[in-house]
Amino acid sequence: MKVNSLSAASLLTGLALAQDLYPGLTTVNHTCAIKPQLRSCPAQSPSSVDTCCTETFGGLILLTQFWSTYTGLEAQGQLLPRDTWTLHGLWPDFCNGSYTQYCDLRRQYDPVPSPNTTNGLPNGTVVPPYRGAPVSTFLEAFQRYDLLDYMNTYWVNQRASNNEFWAHEFSKHATCFSTFQLPCYGPRYQNHSDVIDYFETTIEYYRRFPTWGWLAQNNIRPSNTTQVTLSDVQGTLARASGATPYVGCSGPRYNETDAGRGGNDTGRTVISEAWYYMHVFGRPQEGVAIPVNATGSSSNCARARNALWYYQTTPGSIRS
Ligand SMILES: *[C@@H]1O[C@H](CO)[C@@H](O)[C@H](O)[C@H]1NC(C)=O
Ligand SMILES: *[C@@H]1O[C@H](CO)[C@@H](O)[C@H](O)[C@H]1NC(C)=O
Ligand SMILES: *[C@@H]1O[C@H](CO)[C@@H](O)[C@H](O)[C@H]1NC(C)=O
Ligand SMILES: *[C@@H]1O[C@H](CO)[C@@H](O)[C@H](O)[C@H]1NC(C)=O
Ligand SMILES: *[C@@H]1O[C@H](CO)[C@@H](O)[C@H](O)[C@H]1NC(C)=O
Ligand SMILES: *[C@@H]1O[C@H](CO)[C@@H](O)[C@H](O)[C@H]1NC(C)=O
Ligand SMILES: *[C@@H]1O[C@H](CO)[C@@H](O)[C@H](O)[C@H]1NC(C)=O
Ligand SMILES: *[C@@H]1O[C@H](CO)[C@@H](O)[C@H](O)[C@H]1NC(C)=O
Ligand SMILES: *[C@@H]1O[C@H](CO)[C@@H](O)[C@H](O)[C@H]1NC(C)=O
């Protein structure tokens, strides 16, 4: 399973033990249509607003995407979409840029928790591996076969199953939104309504950030022979999306390649991620968002001219 880099946000430790973000929250009166649509950052006080109707816990919302050239599970039919970055997740960071994870172990569906404790440290609460039915069965119970098809096309894991990836994103991140807490769904909550709601909401935001197309419009296309420059990539995405996203790289460091050896540019050289930051008004589910610049470092990639590879996908890894 892919593990996201921690370079753009520092991990907040110690907050993740509670099972309820807001103990005592009831299922009564969460009619968001009659409440003000308040901005998620700076954080609103959970004691003075309906936390089901305003995101009060993790108000800095990130829509994250991957650029991959293969899945590793091609033989099982797990393929990449053509000419499209894939979906990673929707994350609720704190307004100050740090974050927490696995906020509700009653909704732990991740078969391979990563990290394996709530705070990533050996002394954190252990996140038990999930051994139940895959999350795709939750979607089937709601007869959301169309959603499942969409997810298999655009929300694709590398070296492990898509089901594992979706469960990971839900249990690690969705449980840390105030607006996806169980009491928000009222007394007639059905098992896993929140999971479907998170997947749908995540896709709603994913569709707003056509990274591949934005780059292509500016003549930045995948190539295995010509390299690109971080400021061109990031500037293009910033102009198109309305704020500077985090651009993530993997692969060798520039100072360890022939072109950059011995120099002071230690950024990595293979483009692999984009994270778009937003504040939202009201529930993130409503989709009323404004773009904001990435907090902290806006990239771990090399900054030198033509230092980066935006690799072409492997022909046999693409869905026909
Ligand atoms: C729910 O709303 C009703 C009608 O406004 C009000 O009387 C009641 O006190 C509220 N209950 C809670 C728990 O907020
Ligand atoms: C960031 O915000 C969270 C949530 O309000 C808080 O717990 C944490 O201490 C803050 N971190 C820093 C570095 O200020
Ligand atoms: C968590 O993972 C680390 C690194 O893989 C391992 O050393 C540790 O034993 C694991 N801890 C638990 C509680 O499973
Ligand atoms: C857990 O470990 C971290 C780092 O090793 C340490 O800073 C922290 O105080 C520990 N917390 C507890 C509750 O022991
Ligand atoms: C809800 O789903 C969980 C698995 O996520 C299962 O263990 C539980 O039995 C289900 N509850 C009901 C009422 O169906
Ligand atoms: C490149 O930078 C890294 C990180 O600063 C450093 O550990 C490494 O030794 C450098 N490599 C070379 C060849 O200079
Ligand atoms: C790296 O070196 C370049 C040119 O030698 C210099 O302009 C730049 O300030 C240096 N950057 C850092 C972070 O030291
Ligand atoms: C993002 O940063 C740029 C450059 O620092 C600034 O001009 C712009 O106003 C910022 N955009 C937002 C949405 O904050
Ligand atoms: C381009 O290079 C990447 C990285 O080495 C590789 O995975 C991919 O298969 C290559 N694609 C083509 C079309 O050669």
UniProtKB/TrEMBL annotation:
UniProt xrefs under Pfam families: Ribonuclease_T2
InterPro entries hit by this protein: RNase_T2-like (IPR001568), RNase_T2-like_sf (IPR036430), RNase_T2_His_AS_1 (IPR018188), RNase_T2_His_AS_2 (IPR033130)
SUPFAM superfamilies assigned: Ribonuclease Rh-like
Signal peptide positions (record): 1-18
EC numbers, comma separated: 4.6.1.19
Enzyme's top EC category: lyase
Alphabetical GO biological process terms: RNA catabolic process
Superkingdom of the source species: Eukaryota
UniProt keyword annotations, A-Z: Endonuclease, Hydrolase, Nuclease, Signal
Gene Ontology annotations for the cellular component aspect, listed alphabetically: extracellular region
GO molecular function: ribonuclease T2 activity; RNA binding
Family to which this protein belongs: Belongs to the RNase T2 family.
Identification of the protein by name: ribonuclease T2
Native species: Lithohypha guttulata
